[in-house]
């Protein structure tokens, strides 16, 4: 049975050979950690991390590489931004389309007096910039939105929201978990003050990598303190970047792999990657929408979405559909709430959730055809048919 990997919204797979090679070479040849001694291996590790910082900054249009802060993932980056920036009495404008990595920190910050307004979305997950503007009040200190939904695939208009943020002098934090490496992002032209990205999704790096870009006019309080490899004589956390936010040893092999992923994308061109994913998304949507009893969520227009497609089949539990796709078709998907519960209230799928298929540059047209065929077969045979009963018994 062929395997079709369609869970790239969680973790991209496969990784380019260049990424695997970079990780392996770092593990085999780089025993030191950045800033931990003047010996050759530590210097090599420092150079690897510095070059990765420079390549990421260039890729996203950030003028100062020192303001690219490495984290374990986008969740840690978002927590650093939210906990490091917000203070009692502050108000945040956000949306119902957010991931728990934004919703839960904001809920926690309510304990110290931070309030937030969740702007509603249309049934396909769209939020207009003017809706964001209407939610701003005199205490609003931050706007936070996702770029691409990990449930509906909807891409929010971050340039328009960035214009609203600039107009009102409010910093804008963007969660680019589903778009970094897939859709062109320039922090300057989009008016982004803080950009949180995972390394292990569209940027094609290994798990345990990510970063937060911090613009020049933003100062965050670090939420951890410790060894930075430099300024060891200080009793307090150094003020200089990036050390202010990067306590502890770096994941040097992971960062080397992340940099290799960014280079791979830059060599191909993010526009070409976006074009291929749009084409595959169009094929998948076209095939799925013709299946009787199947409901698609999110916009049909691929200019307004990424390759994250959620659906349900009438009368079938999403978990059952996901299990059948893997057992009978070798198709790796995901089912459930996808860590974004409020989105499911918007699209009417709470609490069961959806079946989610998420594409990458490495998927093929034949894999899409196979997936559509398997989904159609499951929908045609149905939840209560003898065919389903035989599958569950066997």
Describe what is shown at a glance.
With 394 residues, the chain is of the alpha/beta class. It has helices at 17-29, 40-59, 74-85, 100-109, 129-134, 158-168, 252-268, 270-289, 318-329, 341-347, 365-381, 386-393, and strands at residues 4-5, 68-71, 91-95, 115-119, 140-146, 172-175, 194-198, 210-214, 294-297, 308-313, 331-332, 334-336, 354-358.
Shape: globular
End-to-end C-alpha gap? 17 Å
How many DSSP helices? 12
What is the CATH architecture term of the largest domain?
3-Layer(aba) Sandwich
CATH H-level superfamily title of the largest domain: Type I PLP-dependent aspartate aminotransferase-like (Major domain)
Q: Spell the H/E element sequence.
A: EHHEHEHEHEHEEEHHEEHEEHEHH
Low-confidence stretches are 383-394
Percent of residues in beta strands?
5-15%
Q: What is the fold-level CATH name, i.e. the topology of the largest domain?
A: Aspartate Aminotransferase, domain 2
Quote the average pLDDT: 94
The CATH class of the largest domain turns out to be: Alpha Beta
Characterise this structure.
This protein is α/β, with parallel strands linked by helices. The chain folds into two domains: 252 residues, Type I PLP-dependent aspartate aminotransferase-like (Major domain) (Aspartate Aminotransferase, domain 2), CATH 3.40.640; 124 residues, Alpha-Beta Complex (Aspartate Aminotransferase, domain 1), CATH 3.90.1150.10. It contains twelve helices and 13 strands. Helix 4 links the parallel strand 3 and strand 4. The longest helix is centred in the N-terminal third of the chain and has 20 residues.
């Amino acid at each position: 049975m062929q395997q079709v990997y369609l869970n790239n919204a969680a973790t991209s797979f496969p990784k380019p050979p260049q990424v695997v090679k970079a990780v392996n070479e770092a593990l085999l040849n780089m025993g030191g950690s950045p800033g931990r001694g003047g010996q050759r291996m530590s210097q090599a590790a420092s150079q690897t991390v510095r070059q990765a910082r420079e390549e990421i900054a260039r890729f996203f249009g950030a003028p100062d590489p020192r303001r690219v802060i490495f984290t374990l993932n986008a969740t840690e980056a978002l927590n650093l931004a939210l906990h490091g920036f917000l203070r009692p009495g502050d108000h945040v404008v956000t949306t119902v389309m957010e991931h728990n990595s934004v919703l839960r920190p904001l809920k926690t910050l309510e304990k110290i007096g931070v309030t937030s307004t969740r702007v509603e979305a249309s049934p396909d997950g769209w939020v207009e910039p003017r809706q964001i503007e209407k939610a701003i009040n005199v205490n609003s200190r931050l706007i936070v939105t996702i770029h691409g939904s990990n449930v509906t695939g909807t891409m929010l208009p971050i340039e328009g929201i960035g214009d609203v943020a600039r107009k009102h002098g409010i910093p804008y934090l963007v969660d680019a978990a589903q778009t970094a490496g897939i859709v062109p992002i320039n922090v300057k032209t989009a008016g982004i003050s803080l950009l949180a990205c995972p390394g292990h999704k569209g940027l094609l790096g290994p798990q345990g990598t990510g970063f937060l870009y911090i613009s020049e006019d933003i100062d965050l309080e670090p939420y951890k303190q410790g060894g930075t490899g430099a300024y060891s004589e200080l009793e307090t956390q150094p003020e200089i970047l990036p050390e202010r936010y990067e306590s502890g040893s770096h994941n040097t092999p992971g960062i080397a792999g992340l940099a290799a992923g960014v280079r791979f994308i830059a060599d191909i061109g993010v526009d070409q990657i976006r074009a291929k994913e749009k084409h595959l998304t169009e094929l998948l949507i076209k095939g799925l929408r013709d299946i009787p009893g199947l409901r698609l969520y999110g916009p049909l227009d691929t200019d307004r979405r990424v390759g994250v497609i959620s659906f349900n089949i009438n009368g079938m539990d999403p978990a059952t559909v996901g299990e059948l796709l893997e057992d009978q078709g070798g198709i790796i998907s995901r089912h459930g709430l996808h860590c974004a519960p409020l989105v499911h209230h918007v699209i009417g799928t709470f609490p069961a959730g959806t079946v989610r298929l998420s594409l990458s540059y490495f998927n093929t047209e034949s894999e899409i055809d196979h997936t559509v065929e398997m989904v159609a077969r499951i929908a045609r045979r149905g939840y209560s048919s003898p065919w389903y009963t035989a599958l569950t018994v066997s």
